[in-house]
Amino acid sequence: MSRSSLRRELVVPITILVIGVAAAIGWVSMRAGTDAVNTLTQRILTDMVNRISSATGKHLDSALVALDTIAPNPKNAPAVQKFSDDLGLLESKLWIASGLFMDVNNYVYYGGQDGRMVGVFRIKPDFVEVYWHEPGARQRQVYQAKTPGDRSVLLRTDQYDPRLRPWYRAAIASDKPVWSQIYNDFTSAEPTVTLAKPVFQPNHTLIGVVATDVTLKVLSDFLRTLEISKNSVAYIIDSEGYIVATSGDELAVTRVSPNDAPQRLRASEMKTPLISEIYKRSYAWQRKILQGDKSISSTQSFTLATGTVDVAVAALGDKQGLNWLTVVAVPRSDFMSSVNQGFFESLLIAVACILFALTIGLTIVDRVMRDIRKLTGAAEKFGEGQPLPELDIRRDDEIGILAQTFIEMEKKLRFDKLTQVANRESLFAQISYLQKHAKNNPHEHTVFTILFVDLDRFKFINDNYGHDAGDATLVIIAARLKASIRETDVVARYGGDEFVLLLKDTKSSIDIHNMVEKISTLVEMPIALDDVMVSVGVSVGWACFPEDGDDYVRLIKIADSRMYNHKRDRKSHQMHLV
Fold this sequence. Notes:
Blueprint: H1 2-70, H2 87-98, E1 107-112, E2 117-124, E3 127-133, E4 140-145, E5 153-158, H3 166-172, E6 178-179, E7 183-184, E8 191-200, E9 206-215, H4 217-225, E10 233-237, E11 243-246, E12 253-254, E13 263-264, H5 273-281, H6 283-290, E14 299-304, E15 307-316, E16 324-331, H7 332-352, H8 354-383, H9 398-414, H10 424-440, E17 448-456, H11 458-465, H12 467-483, E18 490-495, E19 498-504, H13 509-523, E20 527-528, E21 533-534, E22 537-545, H14 552-577
Helix pairs in contact: 1-2, 1-7, 1-8, 7-8, 7-9, 8-9, 11-12
């Protein structure tokens, strides 16, 4: 009896102590994991919503660029340029403008105050329609054309007066570009918005209106490529609450009957709960964001019937003259499932291993807390645009999965899929971080240099040996660029065959010149592919911070301009040698 009592006196307190310690450890782990997940979730949501807004802004900017190609903004032009409404000259400009961003705005057109009209619609790369209406003509002709001026194939004629169109009337009532309401395009039935710009003579007499249609399907396609979490949703709404684009499969339009025109849906009318419920619950909050209230946080959490949902929003389109809102919503359970599972597993293991629980438990807690602090620190650096530090978390449990997921997510967000160098967004984030660091620490005299690298003869490789050969060439070039710089420097793929190098702590122009020579020598070496030797030329432009500017957009622009000057000088030199 006494033996039984002694065993009970020893076992019961120890068991209670071990279970209590295990429960405390589990609670601490759960709390720390929850805090880390919350921090990481907010960082990821904020980064994702800003990324969507940036990409959408670029799509909208393309429309402004297309119209400026036809009728340049006097504020941006180096000298006053007289606008000509000659239909032949305009057609050539429209061909150029419609080919700049074919996936976004492939239809560019002009309507004159005397009724003349010309438009170029690149339906496909090999199928272009030209719309032509002479002043005083009764009908408009629609041609299939291969080049400007081609009138060999007449497709149809119709009655059309540009002066009666809503885009024309809206534009002539304004002195600046005007966006239309979103509508469903007659031809493609896709959500579309039109940007129209009035054109004036020097005495401010109206000449006509240039306009372009921007298809919004590309925004939904872009949102669907984003990998946030299993049950998340990203969408864009306008100031009236109508859906502009969404990452889900649910259509943002409805038809009362098959013969009726499609009608746009508000966010509150969507069947996807994460869209309709979040919109209803956060309407007042979203309105304040749209109204530019800087005191309002861009992230909030809402409790729905399905659980807690974290939401991030960002105003969009103010620069382009629009008033849209980007929204990303992620169920908390998507991030917390592994943490919850780890909590219950730790309790079961602690109870089963009573004799070793205290020692092992304390060791595990120390390790968990250390790794969670690493994740939290990494999340903070990630949100500031700094490169992700080496986490050095080698474990196979939920914390390890979370760390690996974070690393993979950072790779998807910051690295080019083909060349495995930094992508454009990552480059901009790192430059912005350096600029912010320089502003906050003026005594450190932060300096860095941007090299804009453009490959020559790359198109020849693609055209003659195929895109696989072109991709292999880009991979080799990226590796050579990485080999030519220091570990602290950054190589980024800017787009196509263009790369940008971020060189930190550059001391003098001699260092820059030597680096350009080194890059040129290394990149222009012959490249051995499967069955052929190829080579490319390289043109390099540079810009230094802060001498050439303190804004990354200006620095990129200056480096790009110097690169083109370098390319032009090289071509002139080659022609002189010939």
